[in-house]
Amino acid sequence: MNTSGTGRLVLALASLLLANAVSAGEPPPLCGPVNPMTRPVLSELDEPLAPGATRLDALQAELLEDDVTRLEGEVMAWRDGRLLMADSAIYDDRRQLLTASGNLQFFSEVVDLEAREGSSDMDTGATRFKDVDYYLNIRPGRGSTRHMTLGADRSSQFLGFSYTTCELGSDDWWLRASRADLDHEEGVGTARHVRLWFMHVPIFYTPYIWFPLDDRRRSGFLMPSIGNSRRTGVDVTVPWYWNIAPNHDATITPRYMHRRGEQLGVEYRYLTETTRGILETEYMPEDNLTERDRYRLRYRQRSNLPGAWSFIGDYTAISDPAYLNDLASGLTVNRSRYQSRVGRLDYTQPQWRFRAMVRDFLITDPDVTTDRLQQMPQLVAETRRPINLAGPLQFDARGEAVRFSLRGEREANRADAEAGLTLNFDAPGWFFRPRAGWRSTVYELVEPVDAGGDTSPTRHAPIYSLDTGLIFDRQLNPGGRSMLQTLEPRLFALYVPERDQDDIPDLDTRTRRDGFTRLFATNRFTGADRLGDARQVTAAVTSRLYDDFSGRQVFSARIGQIYYFRDRNVMLDPADDPDTRSTSDIVGEAELSWREEFRTSAQVEWDPREEQVNRSLLNLQYRPRPDTLLNLGYRQRRQAPGAFFPDTEQGDISTVIPLGRQWRAIGRWSYDLNANRSLDTLGGLEFRSCCWGARMYVRRDVPRFGGDTDTSVMFQLQLNGLTDLGTDVDELLDDVVPGFRDLDY
After folding, report:
1. What secondary structure does DSSP assign to 626-654, as a single string?
2. What is the rounded distance in angstroms from the CA atom of residue 373 to the CA atom of residue 172?
3. Which of 514, 528, 549, 647 is deepest in the core (most CB within 10 A)?
């Protein structure tokens, strides 16, 4: 008795709605049973059946004629792990045909069912059932069909079919079709007059649909998405998936925006043994609001080339800087001012790495008018880690050659190289690492920085550093909890002589602002256009606490400060006055996770001379239960005088709170304390039962710095084991609610 068609049908119709099925997960604890049937167990005294053998049991048996037997009372038929039970049956041994009726029950690995009557060709496996109620075993699911035919040629037909994942006694949603025909060899099926009912109300209908029966990709429509925002008005997309070949596919997405008009998007993907690529295009023939054609193109590729070579490419083109902000779909918006366009070729060895790259920057904010310089190309060779030469002696190096241009016109060429030797003395409880290095930078400029200046400036300087520290540890027993505490004092001495760099342009260099790690950097600038003069010592101390039982770090704190022995005369802008402070900001960081449900981290940069905080960051996360979350955040930065961006001070709160067993609330609020305005407000409610769920979100945010607020609304209906109707916002929630992805729900 071949029942694979039954299971394949239900799996297929679980993806009926335009071939966009979502795998059904484990039901939540509040769910009741979906399958009420109990499979009988053979007695341990019964001999196991050989593959292909059939066993028939009954209370009474009567031979009607040659090779035809009537079976009455508790009829059971076993074959290849499948079991049929009925009140009566007739078995034709010559035709290998079993016909059963009366309380018919059928059990298999895939599906159990009850039927009024049925027949099966014991030789070919062709089977028919009438008036069937079925229950899935591979996932929650049940339904019925008036007539089921499972052909010997792996084809199946069903009349009056229905399917749901709701528990017994619940009819919240049903999928119904008047007829379904399946071809399991090809892995495709068709259905006619398909209706989706939700809360006894029809919400979807199609007269005909084609759908896949297995994991083989098939062309067809995906679920439409419907949303609304101030930027677009009512926003509807209806994607169509095109399975071009096993390693090529495309998604064609017509989109209608009430305020702006029609748009067509295409995403083409390809995959080979060495390459993965995606080409995305969008085109709007005329935006009703801007009265012009608008488009976007993005191409991404990653390739593993012969040998140790690899390639990464990422290219974007847009019709205008406001495109990503105006036409972002769903609740997502663009907040970047530039988008990097990169082509990179890498050659990687265990000790060395080589990179050839071209990069420029696309302006994606209409408020920005300044282009960033292109790097066409950049060549880099560097050691991946220090190379051991002899004993404690190690060698490291990095070299770069880059051409800077603007709109295709060459601005400058730059070659920069640094090499160093380190004596690495490292032992339990202490380390001592003196290093001597040399850095040289050479330029070719189209125009000198100052009129009459040098078009080929150079800079050469030694770099001497000493990094040393101690590591102490002791056992503690706070509150009866066995712990290991470390105390790690560290000194970092740096000497770089002053070099005149007034004739060197600023091509890609900024003042380093990367928190605690900058206290141990050999250059206070990022990029090669400035090499900071330094006669300084960094003093820092770190302490950590480890749980002896789990080995988990439960607390760490570190604090440090640079002590300067002379003024810093090399500045990013030669017109700026030298830095005459004798000490740097005091930089402190701490992390605490004393209990796993509570985690906090903090960073502070204190200016002792001005007696003010220049930068601070505080994050707290409280997770008392696997399904509950509270995040509190605060960030503040005081900008240097004359900086393009103003001082920032922002607060952030986000939470996920269960409201009983089936509801939960999700919210996020980000507030600008300087401007006294909300930056981002997101609120939503989610409901989940055994077989369906619903989500509704409202978001009001500022797409760009200084821009107008925008309001977006999203609703999603989730039918477990079938599909999701509406817009998915999981990616957005992952971004704005830290820890959301890890919650149980």
Report:
1. TT-EEEEEEEEEPPPTT-SSPPEEEEEEE
2. 59
3. 528
Q: Give backbone dihedrals phi and psi of 638, rounded to 5 degrees, phi first.
A: -100, 120
- Hey, is 615 helix, strand or coil? strand
Element (H, E) at 150: strand 142-150
Q: How far is the C-alpha of 400 from the C-alpha of 527, rounded, in Å?
A: 11
Residue ranges and CATH numbers for the domains of the chain are 4-40+49-218 (2.60.450.10), 221-372 (no CATH), 625-631+638-745 (no CATH)
Residue 702 CA: distances (Å) to CA of 325, 653, 730: 10, 17, 20
Cβ distance 158 to 170 under 8 Å?
Answer: no
- Lookup: tokens for 45: 């005294």
pLDDT in tens, 12-71: 333 332 233 223 333 344 566 778 888 777 655 466 777 777 788 899 988 888 888 899
CA dihedral 199, 200, 201, 205 (to 10 degrees): 110
User: Helix, strand, or coil here: 326?
Assistant: helix
pLDDT digits (tens, 9 = 90+) for 227-252: 777 788 888 888 888 989 989 999 99
C-alpha span between 702 and 682 (Å, rounded) = 12
Q: What angle do CA 167, 169, 174 make, to 5 degrees?
A: 65
Residue 337 has pLDDT above 90, yes or no: no
Mean pLDDT of the chain: 85
Alpha carbon of 258 to those of 226, 227, 234, 321: distances in Å? 12, 11, 5, 22
Give residue 149's identity as a one-letter amino acid code. T
488 close to 471: Cβ distance less than 8 angstroms = yes
Q: Which residue type occupies 428?
A: P
* Higher local confidence (pLDDT), 367 or 306: 306
In the DSSP assignment, the letter for residue 170 is -
Which of these, 740, 635, 644, lies nearest to 697 by C-alpha position? 740
What is the H or E stretch that residue 11 is in?
helix 4-13
Cα–Cα dist 9/155, whole Å: 10
| CA separation for the pair 695, 733 (Å, rounded) | 12
pLDDT in tens, 405-462: 987 788 899 999 999 999 999 999 999 999 999 999 999 999 898 888 899 999 999 9
Task: Read off the pLDDT of each residue in 713-727 and give the average, rounded to a whole number.
Answer: 73
Cα separation, 203 vs 412, whole angstroms: 63
* Cα 413 to Cα 446: distance, rounded to the nearest angstrom: 9
Nearest one of 38, 23, 39, 29 to 165, comparing CA atoms:
23
pLDDT at 10 over 50: no
Measured CA to CA, the distance from residue 127 to residue 158 in angstroms comes to 12
Residue-wise pLDDT tens digits, 150-205: 776 667 788 998 888 888 888 898 889 999 887 767 766 788 998 989 998 998 88
Integer Cα distance of 225 and 662 in angstroms: 25
For 485-542, give the DSSP string. Answer: EEEEEEEEEEEE-----TTS--SS-EE---GGGGGG-S-SEESSS----EEEEEEEEE
Rounded to whole angstroms, how far apart are CA atoms 275 and 331?
Answer: 32
Closest residue by Cα to residue 364 from 396, 312, 319, 425 = 319
Model confidence at 703: pLDDT above 70 = no
Burial 679-713 (b: 16+ CB within 10 A, else e): bbbbebebebbbbbbbbebebbbbbbbebeebebe
Distance CA 255, CA 267 (A): 13
